[in-house]
Amino acid sequence: MMHSIFYHVTPVIESPTINKRLGRRIMFKMDCHQPSGSFKIRGISHLMLRHVAAGADHFVCSSGGNAGLAVANCAATLNVRATIFVPATTKSSVQQLLTNYGAAVHVEGMVWNEADRVARDHCVAEGAVYVSPFDDPLLWEGHSTVVDELVAQIARPDAVVLSVGGGGLLCGVLLGMYKHGWREVPVIAAETVGAASFAAAVAAGRPVALEGITSIATSLGALKVSDEAFRWTSRHPIHSAVVTDQDAIRSCLTFANELRVLVEPACGAAMAAVEQGYPPLDRCENIVVIACGGNAVSARALCEWTTNHSA
What pLDDT, in 10s, does the model give residues 270-286? Predict the structure, then answer.
């Protein structure tokens, strides 16, 4: 199992209250406890180390927050430059966190794809290394370490549930599952209405671009899922689950009230799929939920989401 100075081996925890209420065993892989606040530091640290070893000293990322924070965190440790392009929907608190790590922050566009176009142009102009938030084999290889840890922590589960934005976590988890012989274990790919690019790809038979992102779960806000994420649908049993913002927020409250941890709606979407019993979860006894984390959350934000998006 790969160990790193950048990220933690995160625990798997359970809640007897949740297990009793849902009538099955739910095991939470707590990547919300990573130093940068999300799973993304796994793949991003792996990618950046490879490029620093080859002489790179400037990294550019487009991000709604979590990928950028992973880049900024790793850049501070490696003593290299980080420039992060964020869309205008990125919370000011997240922008301040990026600045606190020493990253240069630029606000461009209203959605991630617009910020990404500017970031790529900046890389060319500066001779910097572009860091994709989700679409790079080095990212997937790094993210696969979450499964390396799981196989040492639990027995083979009946299903794995995770949230999907651009598909980086999905690709990494599947890579790890194949490495460790979990090839028949179904994966439930959870998204929110208004940010469901993976579900749109499944429906169309190919990756297609959404017209826009209307979900509160802006961390899932890639207009089009990666080609590699879609290709996995022909190799592995992957089930799409699309929940509402209200569902995701209620599951954020589940994390807060029953697991004593704050996560953003992008993470809550995975738990919402479990709470609603999306097939094949209704037939599964032992379920792993990847608690991917997220930085666009605070006690105040959770209260506001609950108030403004109550059913």
Answer: 999 999 999 999 999 99
